[in-house]
User: What shape does this take?
Amino acid sequence: MPLNIDNDVHRFKQIVRGKVRRDLRKHMSSTELIGKEQGKVVRVPLPQIGIPRFRYGDNQQGGIGQGQGDPGDPADGQAGQPGQGQAGDQPGEHELEVDVSLEELAEIMGEELALPRIEPRGRKEIQSERDKYTGISKVGPESLRHTRRTFREALKRQVASGTWVPEDPRIVPVREDKRYRSWKTKSEPQSSAVILYMMDVSGSMGREQKEIVRLEAFWIDLWLQHNYKNVQSRFIIHDAAAREVDRDTFFRTKESGGTLISSAYKLCWEIIEADYPPTDWNIYPFHFSDGDNWSKADTQKCQEMLKEQILPAVNQFSYAQVDSEYGSGQFYEDLKAAFTGDERVTLSRVPDREHIMDSIKELLGKGR
Assistant: This one.
């Protein structure tokens, strides 16, 4: 009788899920996980899942707690200096890697951070068409022939006509026996979102700061893709001037130059205005910087652009300030003073990698 292993598989999945949850902060601060993306799954290292084993044999073979001993004797009964001896022929303990789907990873992150599911606002939905099989038809292409239904009809015909011979149970379908799957094209709403990533690449933003941005962007992408069927990402880098780049350039551009944050906000608004009508899209701008801006006048310009152009068009504007020994950090304080109480603006400070998890909770915790 075959063993039913469904319960064991479910239990193993729960163990894996529990370990991923317990180590989530470590995963979210490590680039190793991102590098192991394979399609729709991520290979998660799980080094300590023990497989229970029964060991049989004579219990009186020596070992800890058996026999006489003197102070200073090795606990394992083996003499010699550490590191000496011949090479062994037995395998050691190895790290286990388990495939976890991005969808499940997003669910775990959402549960652990208590993130609310996002409700798409307004009419920011597009209509998508999907073919759905709805029944059985007597006509159709051979590629959609329903084998079971076809042979059932043939059997019914042979029994009714008296041509069925139990001793020679052959079923031979003819044309009128054939049955085909039928379908209807159904229109359904499909929520769409665009993420606009802006990053300060001036001289004060070093490699570690950009690595933190890369990690945070990965997890933000993961959560928004979990909430929307269609997600697009656009990337802007800026120092004293801003330009749009691809994903790889966004994370690999070397730091240089001064900082005019308004240049990024201006380009962000131009992209929204040209490609993403607020009535059709859920829009999420994320800005990452060390908070060092060229002047108070430019900071004032940024605030005006946010109030008059960007905020009325977007679901939420998020600013995450990555600590740098060269940055003043003043921009965070200026935004906080100008937008306290405005639900459309979320602010976060990221001192180091260990605070990525806390930052994401602050940025995505409103469910907008």
